[in-house]
Amino acid sequence: MSTDAIVLLKDDHKQIKKLFNDFRKAGPNATKTKGDIVSKIIEALTVHTYIENEGMYPAVRKAVPDVEGDILESYEEHHVADLLVMELMTMKPDDERFDAKTTVLIENVEHHIEEEESEWFPEVRKALGRKELQQIGEEMLELKKKAPHSPAQPSALKKTIDAVIK
Fold first, then answer.
1. What residue spans of 1-120 are helical by DSSP H?
2. How many helices and strands, by DSSP H and E, does the chain display?
3. pLDDT for 87-135, tens place per residue?
4. CA–CA dist 18, 23 (Å, integer)
């Protein structure tokens, strides 16, 4: 398995996009199925944004100043996703706005993934060597072991609060 940071993040993106597609395919009356899928989306996004915020973004920000604006925007996109995820956690799958809120979350995250993969991942790959990307990836794998799986866990809440006060 590769420890290249960009490869790891793209693998996460694939898994997250599959969950999004599963949600879309579930159909309008698949309330329980959609609830189960959204629980998986919440967990996947919580872990993923944690390792990006704690591992990838600080390392890249220091090493590749040209993408600082992109990273700051990514922090804000994570913050929006965090808020939607927190709201979804308090909802039931049969709530009137559950599907709409999930759709907005999906659209925001897909936009975020597209920007990362097409705009700044290529710049980061050019600027950092293979060894450095592998080192960042190894750190991200370690972070993943201790990452929160629920946005209500203290380490996930800290990330949300940091977005407001920093």
1. 5-25, 31-51, 57-63, 68-89, 98-115
2. 8, 0
3. 999 999 999 999 999 999 999 999 999 999 999 999 999 999 899 999 9
4. 9
Q: Is 153 helix (H, G, I), strand (E, B) or coil?
A: coil
Q: What does pTM read for this prediction?
A: 0.91
Q: Cα torsion for 122, 3, 111, 21, to the nearest 10°?
A: 130
pLDDT in tens, 9-36: 999 999 999 999 999 999 889 999 999 9
What's 66's DSSP letter? Answer: G
C-alpha dist (Å) from residue 128 to 2, 5, 63, 104: 16, 11, 8, 34
Whether the CB-CB separation of 17 and 148 falls below 8 Å is answered with no
Length of the chain in residues, anyone?
A: 166
Q: Residue 76 has which token pair?
A: 């804000």
Neighbours of 114 (CB within 10 A): 11
**Residue tagged 């993106």 (tokens):** 13
CA gap 112, 70 in Å, rounded: 10
